[in-house]
Amino acid sequence: MSGAPEPISAAAHRALEQELADLRDERRLVSGTLRQNGDVGDEADQADELRRADELDRLDRRIDVITERLRTAAQAGPARTDEVGVGSTVTVRFPDGSEETLRIGEAAEALDQTLVTADSPLGRALLGRRPGDPVRYGTPDGDATVVVVSIGADEG
Fold this sequence. Notes:
Number of helices: 3
Radius of gyration: 21 Å
Largest sheet: 5 strands, mixed
Shape: elongated
Number of domains: 2
Distance between the termini: 21 Å
Strand content: 15-25%
Number of strands: 5
Structural class: alpha+beta
């Protein structure tokens, strides 16, 4: 990741928007349980009140992170198609001749077998590559290679 605003895949964008909506709903529920007056009661009530206040802080921090990520993704625009970057789909060819189309993303998404995170060994090795480029990356079994076949914008 370059430090500049990075594109985000359509699927990741939808997932972040859904998480943001869920967090805002949860925040409304938690904030509704906080007592508005100073009369908190016994120590157990005080501990419970502190726990809810901590939960509210956690929710606020996560809401801020997601809001900022969505804002920077909007600034970045669509993923580049001239070289591999975050948000790209890339088709690679393995030494056995088989091909696979992968999405380059920031964070793993549940049950998405086509997503490669940008900070994984293959993801890091693919960033900045162009069609025809050979790519060497580390695996638990040793070095592996693929060749970039094509690059496209995220389709999901």
